[in-house]
Design goal:
heterodimer; A: 297 residues; mainly alpha; B: 314 residues; 77% helix
Chain lengths: 297, 314
């Protein structure tokens, strides 16, 4: 009965089903024309799978030292060579990928969990708009890497703190996007209609406004993921993130600087891993933006 | 116009207030006792108490906050715990090197990015456009500290063309100075180049579709005149915003690049401060860069109205 009533009052509730089909079609159609997006998805699937199954996927233990093969060039046994302790670079990259992806995903999730409610509140309740957004503006005043460094300086260099720092950088970005989308969605006829019908604020936000702001948030999350991985690598590279002997891409690159005269390989592969992962997320983000939100193109 | 600039300058004050408050809070959430962290676990309680007193940490938080704001209002950023020098003096010593680096990075990125962006827009939809789009996205994804590492590895260590690190002020020995500057500036400028190129392309594509460009073509102007006389001028306005924003990020990115190339600028000062737990230095340098960022954005906004007479400021 309730369903009947809703669709009677809002004929457009029938739309989400159609829209979902349309979305699936658009994704598929877009993918068929975008070879680069395929490559990005394939790379992320392989990298993510390897990171997830790291103990099984890595040919060696990430901290096992093989002193007889220090600075080895790529070979069958050590496909990406070895480092200054004779540790297998590929295995360390696979295990490092776990850290990169964990930091990336949890910091973006954290930023979403804080930023989206803040943006929804600011956009929906006029009185709270100014106080919330001015605080967000303060955070946007810092160049992001500098804010991350300042936060790490205060909290201390651990992986958990890296996640917190990157999440804090991203919160104002998500809050800002959500707020502007909410301001737009508030004007839509069916939101006005829902209000006229006496729906509660929570119901209006949850049922009518949130679905409207999802697409741009998906796009931003994808781009933020790449950025978070880049920032984690930068912080570890500076010595402010993951600490040895835990393998992390940025940290591997940092130590490589001291030894790259003996073996160029150790400076190449960690950077390549960071670059390809971030590049893939950016390609995916660009692709999703074109598909989900053509207006932003 | 003057009234607008003055009003904007006044509006900076609450922003700076917010920024300094945020930094104050951040530096006070340091887990554990700051004095103990600085002196190490084996320090005597007397030494810790003395340092706490010297840093003013034994006073109520609200008094500390008031003092911090009062000193800031007088241009006093505090005193370095390690060297005993005023933080503002240290910033004054290091700022020229950072300015040199960021200015060079900016020139390099603009000189490469704007022509490439125009080219991509003019050849829209061709392989040139697709190639520059991919290169641009790759540039955004390229960790600049990796680019710097690779440049040192191949250009300095393998080929021996340029020194891997070092610094000479431009006024002392221009040639040597440029040799030292080249690699860090290219490294720092690369990610900005990618952003500016993407923006130039999309802005130029948009402008090229506008009526006044059609009119210019219709009245028989040479294509060069249409592109550079009419379209580019208008297309560069949004690019300017991005350049302004990116300039702020250059100062942030300088922390990494200065560390990589042992460049004696503010970025290294900040990072040394972090490692030596010299909190006043970290606080002061970060605040300085944030203030610079705010000022640059103001300058961009003012430049806007010069470039685009359609924008009126009240």
């Amino acid at each position: 009965m309730a369903t009947l009533e809703r669709s009677a009052v809002f004929p457009e509730t029938a739309r989400p089903q159609r829209r979902r089909e349309g979305l699936r079609w658009r994704l598929w159609f877009g993918l068929r024309r975008n070879a680069l997006a395929w490559v990005a998805i394939a790379f992320l699937a392989v990298a993510g799978g390897a990171a997830l199954l790291a103990p099984v996927a890595a040919p060696h233990a990430p901290t096992a030292m093989h002193r007889e093969v220090r600075f080895a060039a790529p070979s069958a046994n050590y496909p990406f060579g070895t480092d200054e302790f004779g540790r297998d670079t590929l295995s360390r990259l696979i295990h490092g990928g776990r850290i990169s992806l964990t930091v990336g995903i949890s910091s973006v999730l954290g930023a979403l969990l804080v930023g989206v409610p803040l943006g929804l509140t600011a956009g929906f309740f006029r009185r709270l708009d100014n106080p919330i957004m001015r605080v967000m503006d303060v955070f946007l005043t810092f160049p992001d890497i500098l804010l991350a460094i300042a936060i790490m300086a205060a909290l201390g260099p651990t992986v958990r703190n890296v996640m917190i720092a990157i999440a804090i950088i991203n919160v104002p970005i998500f809050a800002r996007i959500t707020r502007s989308l909410v301001l737009g969605a508030k004007q839509l006829a069916y939101v006005e209609a829902a209000r006229t019908l006496g729906r509660t604020d929570a119901a209006i936000i949850g049922r009518h406004i949130l679905p409207n702001v999802l697409s741009p948030l998906v796009v931003q999350s994808t781009l933020s993921l790449g950025f978070a991985i880049l920032t984690e690598a930068a912080l570890s590279f500076l010595g402010l993130g993951t600490q040895p002997p835990t393998p992390s891409w940025g940290l591997m690159l940092n130590t490589a600087r001291n030894y790259m005269e003996y073996s160029s390989w150790i400076a190449v592969f960690p950077g390549l891993a960071i670059f390809l992962t971030v590049f893939s997320f950016n390609i995916l983000g660009d692709f999703l933006r074109d598909v989900l939100d053509p207006r932003l193109k | 116009m003057l009234a607008y600039i003055l009003r904007r300058l006044l509006l900076i004050l609450p922003v700076l207030f917010g920024v300094s408050t945020a930094l104050f809070v951040l530096m006070r959430v340091v887990p554990g006792d700051v004095a103990r962290t600085i002196l190490g676990q084996n320090a005597s309680p007397e030494a810790i108490a003395a340092l706490r007193h010297q840093m003013g940490l034994d006073r109520p938080l609200i008094v500390q906050y008031g003092d911090w704001l009062w000193d800031l209002a007088h241009g006093d950023l505090g005193v370095s715990l390690r060297t005993g020098y005023p933080v503002s003096t240290l910033i004054g010593q290091r700022f020229p090197a950072t300015l040199e680096l960021t200015a060079a990075a900016m020139v390099i990125s603009l000189v490469t990015a704007i022509p490439l962006g125009i080219l991509a827009a003019v050849r829209r939809g061709t392989w040139v456009d697709h190639l520059t789009a991919t290169v641009g996205l790759a540039g955004l994804s390229f960790p600049n500290f990796w680019l710097g590492t690779l440049l040192v590895l191949f250009v300095s260590l393998k080929l021996g063309w340029l020194p891997p690190f070092g610094y000479t002020p431009f006024t002392e020995d221009p040639l040597q100075s440029v040799r030292f500057l080249a690699l860090p500036a290219i490294t720092l400028g690369s990610s900005m180049a990618a952003v500016v190129m993407r923006m130039t392309r999309s802005s130029m594509v948009e402008v090229l579709g506008e009526e006044f460009v059609k009119t210019a073509r219709a009245k028989g102007l040479a294509e060069q005149r249409v592109l550079y006389g009419h379209a580019l001028k208008n297309a560069l306005i949004p690019v300017l915003t991005v350049v302004g924003l990116q300039t702020g990020f250059l100062f942030g990115g300088a922390v990494i690049i200065e560390n990589l190339f042992a460049w004696p600028g503010i970025g290294r000062l900040t990072l040394d401060g972090v490692f030596q737990r010299d909190y006043p230095v970290v606080q002061g340098t970060v605040l300085f860069v944030a203030a610079l960022f705010v000022l640059i954005n103001l300058v961009v906004d003012v430049l806007y109205s010069y470039l685009d007479p359609r924008i009126h400021y009240r």
